Amino acid sequence: MSNEWLDKVIGIDLGFFGSAAAACEHTMPGVVPRVDLIQHTGGCEEMAQYAKSKNLSALLLERETKSVVCWGYKAESKYFQTKPKERSKFAYFANFKPDVLTKDAKLRSMKIRDSSGTHEMPVMELFVMLLNAIKETALTQVEMTRKYMFGEAYRPLDPKKILYVLTVPALWDDECVSPFSSVFHKTKQIKIQQLEYRNNERMWTKVWNA
Q1: pLDDT tens string 124-169
Q2: 3: in domain
Q3: Which of 9, 12, 42, 55 has the fewest Cβ atoms nearer than 10 Å?
Q4: InterPro entries, from UniProt (predicted)?
């Protein structure tokens, strides 16, 4: 890690079924830092409370613009509650992590179909979209919490002083990491800052450009 002062670290864990995120603020030495779990964004009211610590790894897109409508349980709920004849304007993707993590470059570069089987997109493009959706949700919730805590003294965080950390399995090797690096550099959405091991788990650290 560099010696640069960071105001906030936001960690993201992307899973096959669900994804989670947590935010930790910078504190003075000897002060226990505040850690906030990033909550779900709706759509799972009937779930058990313990299951709400993770959100669904799913995306709902507008077909024409490819813009993200919503993600997580909210995406699942909105898509399947939409009348079948009106679903054609959406593309719903879920459980595509295995296609992202495969070591087979051909499979990883292929497009995958949405739940309707009539629309397809590159799996790595979907992966970046999901990470950015999680990032935006996390940052929004962090700022809402800070605004509530500080009141009139609230000031938005400096985007350059927020570190986003993506955890990856310890079994990943450079062969797995390399394609992600190239995708992030192409999109200019994420740049690699550090790659290291801690407590037998590999931490793949990235900083999203605001």
Answers
A1: 788 888 888 888 888 888 898 889 888 989 899 888 888 777 766 5
A2: no
A3: 42
A4: ATPase_NBD
- Cα dist. 166→41, 84, 94 in Å? 20, 36, 19
Query: Does residue 161 form part of some domain?
Result: yes
Q: Under 8 Å CB-to-CB from 118, ≥6 apart: which residues?
A: 88
Which phi and psi (to 5°) does residue 108 adopt? -70, -25
Distance of CA 95 to the CA centre of its chain: 14
Residue 73 structural domain? 8-208
Which amino acid is it at 165?
Answer: V
Give this prediction's pTM.
0.74
Q: What is the dihedral of CA 23, 143, 60, 98, to 10 degrees?
A: -10
What pairs with residue 190 in β-bridges? 208
In a domain, 1, yes or no: no
Render pLDDT for 64-83 as a digit per residue (tens, 0 to 9): 999 999 988 889 999 999 99
- What's the residue count for the chain? 210
Q: b or e along 132-145 (b: 16 or more beta carbons within 10 Å of the residue's beta carbon)?
A: bbbbebbbebbeee
**Total domains present in the chain:** 1
